[in-house]
Design brief:
five-stranded mixed β-sheet; cell division; alpha/beta; cell cycle; 13 helices; Cell division protein FtsA; cell membrane
Length: 437
């Protein structure tokens, strides 16, 4: 149960503390929160508990590129600083935490399995057995299972059963969504956290977390896509009938827009980032040719006058990269086979989605209704952390409440064995959430 406990003491066990770590390409964020009894709500009825943030720390990311650890020492230092700031604010010590993952070429695969019941009632043991059989099908050499989620159970010939426990039948089947990733990037991610004297209790796919944080129940039930545009990656998650059914990752994000600007305008990266945030737009305006922006060229003396460039030059550079990214998202959605189930509902989130005019550009290129998604239903977040950039860490806080019917203990000796498994922490935490309040 330590993954729900900031530290390991009995007082923390009673208070229900959860700690999460978002290791992104642009920032590293640690949040410590307390779970409180849910008073019920219409838009977010799937959540069994309310979340109150008691500590938060975030740092500029170092040593991470497109979600992959490329410099252990720099990444470890950023993690240490973020966790330390959260610990000081919360007044407790963190030992283990839930971490997001967008590296390792995340891949969605369907799987199914069937077991014989012999006419008796379906028990939790039967459910675990069929889930494990389904998850094993998706294993490949050098791949690890990140999620194996039941999309729907089949009892004899009856499909679409959400919870078969207690029902009677001859055979129990399951249709599953299994998310796998390359082993090596996941192991390096865990190694980096371990070097900061912390334990990884769980790895959660970034697209899943972002969808949990930003989609309301009706969107997830009717079918919707959540597109999280981060610094180094853009992730896509699809939810249908309240279930996470597909994910994809593109190795392109807001940092690529900044790089294009820096190259196209011959200016430093930090100046390009400032120009993007203050003057950048994904849509052309009539004033772009008349409006001028000041640009400090690379290597220019600080006493030299900055160059004056029409904003239209900058907008064209930004638009080219944004349109390319959105076209990739559109093509991946269409290729996923779930494009028609998503209908016209797309939620944009992530730090890069805050670029001026991006929702309008997305509506035009995706041909769907697009809204900007911010983390929902969390108390105690500081004003600076209420925006779209913090969707993934908030989703990590929500994950334990929706983690029923998941099994990942499918390969002996793998590091994910420690995270969860059949009859393991995920089941215990579900029981704990039911029993605690």
């Amino acid at each position: 149960m330590s993954w729900l406990l900031g530290g390991g003491g009995s007082s923390q066990r009673r208070s229900g503390i959860i700690t999460v770590l978002d290791i992104g390409s642009s920032k590293v964020c640690c949040i410590i929160a307390k779970l409180l009894p849910n008073e019920g709500g219409v838009a977010l009825s799937h959540r069994s508990h309310r979340i109150k943030v008691i500590g938060i720390g975030h740092q500029k990311s170092e040593g991470v590129k497109s979600g992959v650890i490329v410099n252990l020492e720099k990444a470890e230092q950023a993690i240490r600083l973020a966790v330390d700031a959260a610990e000081r604010m919360a007044g407790l010590t963190v030992e283990s935490l839930i971490v997001n993952v967008s590296a390792g070429r995340l891949k969605s695969e369907p799987a199914s399995a069937t077991i014989s019941l012999g006419g008796h009632q379906v028990s939790t043991v039967d459910v675990n057995k069929v889930l494990l059989a389904g998850a094993r099908q998706a294993l490949r050499a050098e791949r690890e299972v990140v999620h194996s989620l039941a999309v729907g159970f089949v009892l004899d010939s009856e499909r679409g059963i959400r919870d078969p426990r207690g029902m009677v039948g001859e055979t129990l089947g399951v249709d599953m969504h299994v998310v796998t990733a390359d082993s090596v990037p996941l192991r390096n991610l865990e190694l980096c956290v371990n070097r900061a004297h912390l334990a990884v209790e769980m790895m959660v796919a970034t697209p899943y977390a972002s969808g949990l944080a930003t989609l309301v129940d009706d969107e997830a039930e009717m079918g919707a896509a959540c597109v999280d545009m981060g610094g180094g990656t853009t992730t896509i998650s699809v939810f249908v009938e309240g279930k996470f059914v597909h994910c994809d990752v593109l190795p392109v994000g807001g940092h690529h827009v900044t790089m294009d600007l820096a190259r196209g305008l011959s200016t430093r990266l930090e100046d390009a980032e400032r120009l993007k945030v203050m003057h950048g737009s994904a849509l052309p305006t009539s004033a772009d040719d008349r409006s001028l922006v000041s640009i400090q060229p690379i290597g220019a003396d600080e006493h030299e006058q900055p160059l004056q460039v029409p904003r239209s030059v900058m907008s064209r550079i930004i638009r080219a990269r944004v349109e390319e990214t959105l076209e990739l998202v559109r093509d991946r959605l269409n290729r996923s086979g779930y494009g028609h189930l998503v209908g016209r509902r797309v939620v944009l989130t992530g730090g890069a989605s805050q670029l001026t005019g991006l929702p309008e550009a997305a509506r035009r290129l995706l041909g769907r209704n697009v809204r900007l998604g911010r983390p929902l239903g969390v108390m105690g977040l500081p004003e600076a952390a209420k925006g779209a950039a913090f969707a993934a860490p908030v989703g990590l806080l929500i994950y334990p409440q929706v983690a029923a019917f998941e099994s990942r203990n499918v390969r002996g000796g793998g590091f994910l064995m420690r995270a969860t498994g059949t009859g393991g922490r995920l089941q215990r935490v579900s029981q704990w959430l039911r029993d605690s309040f």
